[in-house]
């Protein structure tokens, strides 16, 4: 069949510009894994620029929990708010950061349901770039939450014996564990049907893990069975290590345990996520 | 690309099952590396599933496909370097501007920062989106989104572009814009595989087409080959008095020896005529019986009729069937005039 040629411009499109836009030109060199991931991390930042509300959790959770728990329970649990803050702050930082790691799954799920992931998957780029880019921008969000907790704590009278180095290492350790945990949410992001299902699962898992831990109270006051749970709870391990770093009493074995746990999470859930991502139908 | 180069797509025996549902049930397809190829079928026929397999997004359960000479499973990466896909549903970041969307994709494809911005501007200009480029995609109309989606697929001119229902839901003006883009792309040497449920769209754009139904290719050829395979044409008449439509139908059926179709317009009738000579006999018969006609035409068969003849069921079951058949009749008359 011979299609009747439509003269340029007849459809209301600028004819010269259309022709220019379609002209073939040399193809730029392929991007590497790092630059593709960074581009997609930049994409996530641009989205935050347009919809700053996305950061509401990362800002509100640290403020709310640091202030609320300190003044609410401080007097009752440690005799003074000042002393309680010394105990609580490392735990609040862990708690706040772990809660917002769920974004790793929610954002991925949104990209998949909106077909955006399909576009990236059909392009000649390093396949994990979307996941890795997301995790890079998540690290920024986590850093913001951790930084807020520390800043607020300092204002309220928190005095870390571990000094600047100790605090920075503590923040770093939380970010490493958060990175490992993010892969769990990414996996769930590809398995569960809706973003809200991921949030729901995350709350169901994270609330018992954080409250039945040493974040808020010393486990000495708990019944025996609960104390056992708390001791083996990975969140407790992380909080112990973070407290150690901030108080200048860090034990290498605790830090190693956290790094090992983070590594295990990545080793199990990163390949699982990649597999699910690759084999979507 | 020349006529005798290797085909853009060679698929054989593609099967894809979802649960117990065979979405693709042995698809064999050869698409030449030139022009626009139409992929036509009703809802749920397997168009999107086929495209996803061919664009390396979804591995087939059985069968093989080579796209631009590379196997879609084993050499997926090689395929991805030379194809582009505009999916059935918008795949842009709603929260970002059109410009940002294109810039990000251009960066991913290896453009420098400045190069990516230039390319984004150039595409926005060419696709009539220059003014909207700075607005978030959320604020775009359906037609603007579609154009942005297509623009995103040709940041680097692909050798083969998949367009999944690029005009569904667009008004005639937006549809014409997308058509102009498709024709321009084909002229610049990109092979376009376009799926559609609209028979007039395939007729207007495609150099060749395949018809898919229930996961199988049921016909393949040029639009005119498919039409002539069905018969010489169709007699279409409109009676002045709706009350006499059934009588007119009986007379037509007798004279033509083919079943009569009635549309929702209560004055309309049509029937296939295998031989144009009998069409004039049929019309004379109506005149003898004193049935006044307000309009009559002898049309080549529409692809809708082709579809009916091939599958035994109509291509579209929704309410706009008639609107489309009419639109087709109009374009056809323009062409023959
Ligand atoms: N991911 C999926 N899971 C389950 N079933 C699916 C999936 N994708 C497609 N199907 C089924 O496969 C069949 C073919 O679907 P497909 O989307 O390819 O049709 P289509 O020709 O593109 O239709 P439409 O014109 O409505 O877009 C349908 O029965 C559909 O329900
Ligand atoms: Mg479809």
Describe this structure in words.
Chain A: Keywords: Antibiotic resistance, Cell membrane, Membrane, Transmembrane, Transmembrane helix, Transport. Chain A: It comes from Plantactinospora alkalitolerans. Chain A: This is Transport permease protein. Chain A: Residues 53-280 form the ABC transmembrane type-2 domain. Chain A: The chain crosses the membrane at residues 55-78, 84-108, 129-158, 164-185, 197-217, 255-277. The complex is a heterodimer of chains A (281) and B (337). Chain A is mainly alpha-helical and 281 residues long. Chain A has one domain (31-280). Chain A is 75% helix and 0% strand. The longest helix of chain A has 29 residues, at 163-191. The two termini of chain A are 35 Å apart. Chain B is an alpha/beta fold and 337 residues long. Chain B folds into two domains: 9-227, Rossmann fold (3-Layer(aba) Sandwich), CATH 3.40.50.300; 232-299, Alpha-Beta Plaits (2-Layer Sandwich). In chain B, 38% of the residues lie in helices and 25% in strands. Chain B has helices spanning 47-54, 76-80, 98-108, 113-126, 142-153, 172-187, 199-205, 223-228, 245-256, 276-288, 303-311, 321-336; strands spanning 9-18, 21-31, 36-40, 62-67, 70-71, 83-86, 160-164, 191-196, 208-213, 216-221, 233-239, 260-261, 268-273, 293-299. The longest helix of chain B is centred in the middle third of the chain and has 16 residues, at 172-187. The relative contact order of chain B is 0.12. Residues 317-337 of chain B have low confidence and may be disordered. At the A-B interface, helix 1, helix 2 and helix 6 of A face strand 6, helix 3, helix 4, helix 6 and helix 7 of B. The structure holds adenosine-5'-triphosphate and magnesium ion. Adenosine-5'-triphosphate binds next to strand 2 and helix 1 of chain B.
């Amino acid at each position: 069949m011979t299609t009747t040629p439509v003269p340029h411009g007849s459809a209301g499109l600028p004819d010269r510009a259309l022709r220019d836009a379609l002209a073939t030109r040399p193809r730029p060199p392929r991007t590497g894994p790092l630059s593709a991931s960074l581009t997609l991390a930049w994409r996530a930042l641009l989205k935050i620029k347009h919809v700053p509300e996305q950061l509401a959790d990362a800002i509100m959770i640290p403020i709310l929990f640091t202030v609320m728990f300190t003044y609410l329970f401080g007097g009752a649990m440690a005799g003074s708010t000042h002393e309680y803050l010394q105990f609580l702050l490392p735990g609040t930082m862990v708690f706040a950061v772990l809660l917002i790691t769920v974004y790793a799954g929610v954002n991925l799920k949104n990209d998949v349901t909106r077909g955006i992931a399909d576009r990236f998957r059909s392009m000649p780029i390093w396949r994990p770039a979307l996941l890795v880019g997301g995790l890079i921008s998540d690290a920024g969000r986590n850093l913001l939450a951790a930084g807020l907790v520390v800043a607020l704590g300092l204002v309220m009278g928190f005095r870390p014996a571990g000094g600047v180095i100790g605090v920075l290492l503590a923040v770093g350790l939380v970010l490493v564990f958060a990175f490992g945990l993010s892969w769990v949410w990414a996996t769930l992001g590809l398995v569960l049907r809706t973003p809200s299902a991921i949030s729901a699962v995350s709350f169901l898992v994270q609330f018992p893990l954080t409250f039945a831990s040493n974040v808020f109270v010393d486990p000495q006051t708990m019944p025996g069975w609960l104390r056992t749970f708390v001791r083996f709870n990975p969140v407790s391990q992380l909080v112990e290590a973070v407290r150690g770093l901030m108080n200048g009493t860090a034990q290498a074995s605790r830090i190693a345990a956290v790094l090992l746990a983070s590594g295990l999470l990545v080793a199990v859930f990163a390949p699982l996520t990649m597999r699910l991502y690759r084999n979507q139908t | 690309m020349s006529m005798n180069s290797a085909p853009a797509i060679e698929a054989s025996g593609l099967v894809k099952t979802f649960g117990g549902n065979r979405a693709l049930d042995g698809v064999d397809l050869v698409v030449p590396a030139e022009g626009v190829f139409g992929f036509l079928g009703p809802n749920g026929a397997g168009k999107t599933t086929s495209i996803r397999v061919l664009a390396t997004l979804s591995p087939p359960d059985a069968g093989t496909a080579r796209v631009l000479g590379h196997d879609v499973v084993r050499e997926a990466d090689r395929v991805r370097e030379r194809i582009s896909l505009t999916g059935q549903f918008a795949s842009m970041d709603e929260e970002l501007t059109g410009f940002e969307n294109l810039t990000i994709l251009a960066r991913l494809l290896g453009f420098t920062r400045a190069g990516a911005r230039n390319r984004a501007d150039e595409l926005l200009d060419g696709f009539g989106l220059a003014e909207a480029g700075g607005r978030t995609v959320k604020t775009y109309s359906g037609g603007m989104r579609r154009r942005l989606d297509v623009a995103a697929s040709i940041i680097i001119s692909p050798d083969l572009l998949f367009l999944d229902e690029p005009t569904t839901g667009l008004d005639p003006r937006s549809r014409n814009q997308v058509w102009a883009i498709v024709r321009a792309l084909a002229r610049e040497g990109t092979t376009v595989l376009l799926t559609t449920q609209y028979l007039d769209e395939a007729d207007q754009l495609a150099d060749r087409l395949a018809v898919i139904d229930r996961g199988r290719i049921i016909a393949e050829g040029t639009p005119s080959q498919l039409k002539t395979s069905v018969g010489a044409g169709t007699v279409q008449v409109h009676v002045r008095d709706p009350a006499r439509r059934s009588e007119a139908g009986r007379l037509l059926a007798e004279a033509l020896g083919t079943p009569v179709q009635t549309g929702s317009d209560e004055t309309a009738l049509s029937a296939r005529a295998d031989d144009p000579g009998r069409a004039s006999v049929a019309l004379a018969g109506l005149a003898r019986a004193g049935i006044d006609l307000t309009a009559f035409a002898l049309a080549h068969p529409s692809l809708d009729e082709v579809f009916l003849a091939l599958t035994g069921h109509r291509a579209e079951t929704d309410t706009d069937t008639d609107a489309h058949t009419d639109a087709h009749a109009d374009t056809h008359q323009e062409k023959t005039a």
